[in-house]
Write a structure and sequence with these properties.
This protein has about 120 residues and is an all-beta fold. The chain has no helices and 11 strands. The strands form 2 sheets. Strands 2, 4, 5, 6, 9, 10 and 11 form a 7-stranded mixed beta sheet that branches. The protein has a 4-stranded antiparallel beta sheet with strand order 1-3-8-7, with no helix packed on it.
Length: about 120
C-alpha cells in the first residue's frame, strides 16, 4: 500500500510555471507506475502525464506535450510535474496516482491509490 501527498499548487499568470510534487510513503515505490491527472469543475478526471515504474518511460496527454515534464526520484519516493507555459485551460485540481500496472496508462480505473489533490489556477 502507498499513501500520496501532493504539494506545489497555486495561482499563476498565463505563461508562468509551477512545479508539483508528490511524496509517496511505503517501501515499494519502484513497484508503481505513477501519473498525474487533473479535474476541472464540471469535467471528468483526465490523464496529464505518466511515468513507468523502474526505468521511467514517460507519456503525456496531447494538450500538455512540450510544456509539462514528469519525473521521478526513486531514492526520495517522489514524483514531480514541472509545468511551463501554463494556460487558463490548465486550471484544475491536480492529482497524483499510483498503479501496479507495468505502464502508466491513461485510465483512472487502473490507479488504486490517489492523493488528495492540489489546486492549480492560471489567470489570463
Amino acid at each position: 500500500q502507498v499513501q500520496l501527498v501532493e504539494s506545489g499548487g497555486g495561482l499563476v499568470q498565463a505563461g508562468g510555471s509551477l512545479r508539483l510534487s508528490c511524496a509517496a510513503s511505503g517501501r515499494t515505490f519502484t513497484s508503481y507506475s505513477m501519473a498525474w491527472f487533473r479535474q476541472a469543475p464540471g469535467k471528468e478526471r483526465e490523464f496529464v502525464a505518466g511515468i513507468r515504474r523502474s526505468e521511467g518511460t514517460t507519456s503525456y496527454a496531447t494538450p500538455v506535450k512540450g510544456r509539462f515534464t514528469i519525473s521521478r526520484d526513486n531514492a526520495k519516493n517522489t514524483v514531480l510535474l514541472q509545468m511551463n507555459g501554463l494556460k487558463p485551460e490548465d486550471t484544475a485540481v491536480y492529482y497524483c496516482a499510483a498503479s501496479y500496472r507495468f505502464y502508466a496508462t491513461v485510465y483512472v480505473a487502473d490507479y488504486g491509490y490517489w492523493g488528495q489533490g492540489t489546486q492549480v489556477t492560471v489567470s489570463s
